[in-house]
Amino acid sequence: ESDTTPLVTALSDLRQVIVACSFALSAEQKPERWRDRDRLRREIEALIARIRAMGSPLLVVVGGVTGSGKSTIVNTIVGHAVSRTGVIRPTTSNPVLVVHPVDAHWFTDDRILSDFVRVELEGAVTRLKANDTAARLQLIRDEDIPLGLALVDAPDIDSVSARNRAIADALLDTADVWLWCTSAAKYADEESMRYLARAAERRTALAVALTRVEPEYVEELTSDFETKLVDHASLEPELFIVPTAHVIDERLPLPAIGSIERWLRELSGPLVRRSRRRQTIEGALDVMTSDVDRLIAWVQNETEVLQVLNEVISRTTAQTRHEFSRALDDGRAMRDEVLLRWNRFAGASGMIALVERAGERASTWARTLMTSVTGDRAEEEERVREAVANDVTNLVTQLLELASGRIVHDWGTVPAGRELLEAHPELAEAPADLDVRAEKTISEWQATVVRLVETKGAQRRLRARWLSVALNATATGAIIATLAQTGGLTGAEAGIATAAGAANQALLTKVLGSANLRWLITNAREDLERRFTDLVAVHRRRFTLVLAAAAPSPKLVEQLHERANAVQKVRSCLN
After folding, report:
1. CB-based contact 178:277 (threshold 8 Å)
2. What is the pLDDT of residues 204-214, one digit of tens each?
3. Residue 414: exposed, middle, or buried by beta-carbon count in 10 A (0-12, 13-18, 19+)?
């Protein structure tokens, strides 16, 4: 016996990566991709089970189309009814596995057919509840089955029940040998040919039983069926003809399936058993790379979808930042009445005069003027600050809500994006804490402006220290109003000294000096835009987190390639 551990390890590693293919961004193609992924996963699990138990009984699955007499053939081979038959479809909802008592231990645990829950029966026919969705395997121990063989009666591959079709697929994926049954009425069906072509591609050990054939049509039907097998499935399997016969006690007359019974007994021999099992394993390994390549193509397709959805987020983020900057530039961040009120305050002759004389020796009239105006001025300055805070906050929330709306709209044009939005309806609504976060951001920005003004105001070294505090507060209000009105550009660059901005320009220049003013406005503007960028990042994170949870791992394609190649490199250990 060769050491097959490297192959088992490589297959296990590949299975682990295949399971990680969620295909959450595949939209309407998701069911097909899940089906193929799960089929490949089952095939790998079946391969591992076969390789680990090369000496186990050969698993022969009797599968095929509705009404082809699968259960009747199984009952006839066993010699008594172990699987229910009848005209009401489907008759086989839960597969029946018949095995010799000596071999039963191979199937009582989950080494083989691990997806199925075992139900032990004492040789009796039992029908489980119709609404039972679990995949159950009815295990029957019977001494009439040859040692080294396990016979499974599978549900129809074309059953009206999706559950039954899925169970039939799982059993055929796990089988060492197929005994495919099709009737004279349905042998050319497209679905039947598709399964047989799949068996041929994988070199699955196979025999085909053409059932319910009237004696006078045996030669004609046999010839036509053989031609179709070659043309549509490239197959020349062992072909058994089961003539139409009277069914008694859910069995056919023994001569009707005599050739099938002899074939099965030959399969049970140790050498034939290992040869057929190895044939099926080798065939599955032959096509595994192409199966994995198909998954890789789908993962790459999802990566392209991911890029499209991410580009929507990035494009919207850049647009939102640009719109915020433009709003600052053209003064949309502040209402006209607030600006007019501030400009009347900033242009008051008493305040301008006070600023112009700030560097002179303090005099009684200056102290008197300051005393008379600071109270009203402070209240006005505070009202302006609050008004600016409210207006800038409103601008921020409106732009962020608009950004969400754009992302939702553009995602909705992509099937995968539409599916994500349906799964996460909260994305269409503004976060509950948006207003609170926006208010906090603008409040923190204004506090930064105050610190910047105090820093530059101190550099002017005003002799009247008692005056500097009031002037710094006044300058703070002026800076905030200026930023809200003009976006921070000063002088000839923005025409700030015209009309609405003239008073602010004069006041700020007197208090801080033109160089300090330019520095201050530049830094305050940058700080505001940086804080807005942080808000946008938090806002977009709602979408990026949802997208990241659905996205395939960036390393998935590479891992699929590497692990599929690793399987092929060590497959020689089977020899």
Report:
1. no
2. 999 999 999 99
3. middle
pLDDT of residue 508: 58
* Residue 271 CA to its chain's centroid (Å): 46
Please report which confidence band the pLDDT of residue 390 belongs to, taking 50, 70 and 90 as the band edges.
confident
Does the predicted TM-score (pTM) go above 0.70?
yes
Of residues 137, 148, 171, the one with CA closest to residue 62: 171
Q: 375: which 2 tokens?
A: 């109270």
pLDDT at 471: 46
* Whole-number pLDDT of residue 431: 86
Long-range contacts formed by 404-410: CB under 8 A, 24+ apart: 404/428, 404/430, 404/539, 406/312, 406/316, 406/319, 407/312, 407/313, 407/316, 407/540, 407/543, 410/312, 410/316
Q: In terms of Cα–Cα distance, which of 103, 78, 210, 206 is closest to 153?
A: 78
| pLDDT category of residue 90 using cuts at 50, 70 and 90 | very low
What are residue 157's phi and psi, to 5 degrees? -75, -20
Rounded to 10 degrees, the C-alpha dihedral 85/88/90/94 comes to -50
- Distance (Å, whole) CA 341 – CA 337: 6
| Predicted pLDDT at 22 | 95
According to DSSP, the residues that pair with 98 across neighbouring strands are 140, 151
Task: Please give the order of strands across the beta sheet that includes 96-99.
Answer: 117-121, 136-141, 96-99, 149-153, 58-64, 177-183, 205-213, 238-243
d(CA 67, CA 186): 9
Sign of CA dihedral 107, 109, 115, 118: positive
Supply 22's token pair.
């969620």
* pLDDT of 518 above 50: yes
- The mean pLDDT value of the chain amounts to 80
Whether residue 524 contacts residue 278, with contact meaning beta carbons closer than 8 Å, is answered with: no
Tens digit of each residue's pLDDT (9 = 90 or more) over 174-219? 899 999 999 998 888 888 899 999 899 888 999 999 999 999 999 9
Task: Express each pLDDT in 127-137 by its tens digit.
Answer: 445 455 667 88
Average pLDDT estimate for 406-415: 95
Q: Could you tell me which residues are beta bridge partners of residue 242?
A: 211
Burial class (CB in 10 A: 0-12, 13-18, 19+), 363: exposed
CA–CA separation, 337 and 234 (whole Å): 85
Does 336 have pLDDT greater than 80?
no
- Residue 77 half-sphere exposure toward CB, CA atoms < 13 A: 30
Q: Judging by DSSP bridges, how do beta strands 149-153 and 96-99 pair with one another?
A: antiparallel
* Burial class of residue 165 (count of CB atoms within 10 Å of its CB; 0-12, 13-18, 19+): middle
Local structure of 20: helix, strand or coil: coil
Q: What would the two tokens of residue 72 be?
A: 């009747």
- Predicted pLDDT at 87: 42
